[in-house]
Fold this sequence. Notes:
By secondary structure, the chain is an alpha+beta fold. It contains 19 helices and 12 strands. The chain has a domain of 206 residues: Serine Threonine Protein Phosphatase 5, Tetratricopeptide repeat (Alpha Horseshoe). Strand 2 and strand 3 form a beta hairpin. Helix 7 packs antiparallel against helix 8, helix 8 packs parallel to helix 11 and helix 15 runs antiparallel to helix 16.
Amino acid sequence: MKNNYLNICQLKYVRKTVYFLTIFCIIILPACKKQLDVKDPNDPTFDVNVTDETGITSYAQGSVFWNGFNYGDGWLGDSYFSLPWGYHELMGDAIGGGQGSNNQTTTIGVPDKFQADSTNPSTTFTNPAPEALAIIRGFNDVGATNSGNNATYYEWINMYGMINACNLTLEHLAGISLSKDKASTIMAWCYWWKGYAYAQIGTLYYAGLIVDQSNTIVNNYKNQDSIIAESNRNLNLALTTLNAISNQGDYGAVIAELIPQQNQVGLGMPLSSAQWMRTINTMLARNILLNHLSPFVKSNASATISKASIPVMTSAEWQSVLSYCKSGIQKGDYIFTGRSATSGTSYFTPIGGSVASLLAASNQTTTYKLSERLVQMFKQDDKRRANFSTANGTFYGDANTNSTRYSLIDGVDAGLTGVPILGSREPGGVEIHIGPTYEENELMLAEANIRTGNIETGLGYIDAVRSYQGAGVAAVSGTGLTLTGALNELTMERIAALALRGLSFYDVRRWGWTYAIANGGGRYGCTLIYDTKVYTNATIDYNFMDYWDVPADELTKNEPSDGSAAVVNPNY
Length: 572
């Protein structure tokens, strides 16, 4: 685990945000080696280093895997998949923080209040420092960023670093001698990752910036919906560009150069243009689903939420999800993944590079703790529970909700087979699902069908995912489940099948669970340890901020122009 001090390279550039969008630590070496000797950040030295296919593909690769998934991530862990994703999993209550406070990871996932026994008010715990104001807003300033306590900062700097580097690649692509389809493959790469980055910004922040040119100051802040629209625009550009490629040999040669070698194993092999287009369709469906409410609170499929930043899904939007996912990722498709490596040039390490690796050891020592709420989403006879162990005893945390009986095993060391390995500290031991997956596509089809009246069809997709992951549980289709029963299965399976993939917060948010009980939200029937006792029917009142304010690091250097959208969430 990294401490709360910057290394020399990070210290030089940590204060640069979109106002200073530049090349940062961009990659220009064919081996994807991080260039630590950063010179003038406004001089990417394309003329010297990027003159041919090898140069531009290495640059494009580094734009994503270094600028997007590594830049500025030397705090807790060492990549985007450790701290920014960690916040997603903490606020989704899939994991808890450890003792003390590292980058607010202990505090950010603590609810406003919970009642361990829903029939006994004396088991009520009230958080003296509620998350929405005390953590997200109270530490959103430049000073807190410099001391590693501003949670809003990290996702922003990663994704805008990626966007800027992709813009640079697109701007200089015309100066490289390439065939039309090789150039188109690199263009699609940049559009896809810009679409991904805008999706991450628009799904987390209340407002953002649309930056179409590199090293450009933009201070017209757009609302969350506009940022998602920009994501969709780039995703569709990628789709159109890929669809026009005719020489699959040229395409295949370039995509193999764009994906780091350490990723090219398992599902991370170079994907065909058809597989990539299916991935884009699934991502377009995700953008709709994660940014609309579909409340299911206290087993009420008609629950309503007040003071939410996003609207409720409409019938037309459910149909759009169905349409995209029917052309989405298929079983066996290659997708975008990440793998750790031992090499010093790796963009994340086996131990500190992801939530899954930080979690994969004894609960007495790990930075993150496996949540009791995650484990309860796996049925007792689910073979995927082999990822969890009680051999290390119970960790009793100082934040109450992070107490847990479970540890995540190192699935590689344990020789786990037949089910997905959720955690490992072995090099390359965990497959990080960077973009959407087959399981996510199937579960969107499941939810959309259930919500539009086709319950049996939807349940069939849930069964398909459980079979694919080797769960070994009884099928739920054909059992006569009601809408409520079907949604109970759906919510359980999404949390279980997509665990530790950076989606947990977004799911429980759109189902209404993270909103205040006073506003129609809350989570019920929870397993929770309080005062050393295990309770199985707890009620949790999270009251988490649904969309975060824009980071103060951006606002202090890049004040909003007249006509900008609100940069502070008015619902909190």
